[in-house]
Amino acid sequence: MTRDFPYYHGDPVGIGPRRWSSMLLSMVAGYLALLLLPATSLDWQLLARWLFVACPVAALSWATQGRASALRASVAWSGLRTLVV
């Protein structure tokens, strides 16, 4: 069997409507953090950027019942071609 994308591997992750909604809301929350947190110091800027990334990743981890670690899986050279094309 050939190597497939981490969230599939012949066993797709089922995500229900409630979990999809939470993922979409987390993206909105991350975007709002980026827009609304004051950029008065480097600490606030870093916090806003961290929340922009962390909110959706945390929701994805919850929605996929802990399979978010697959995002950090290594990509083979043949997979890079697929990602680019």
UniProtKB/TrEMBL annotation:
Q: Which chain regions cross the lipid bilayer?
A: 20-39, 46-64
Q: Superkingdom of this entry's organism?
A: Bacteria
Keywords from UniProt, A to Z, are: Membrane, Plasmid, Transmembrane, Transmembrane helix
Descriptive protein name? Uncharacterized protein
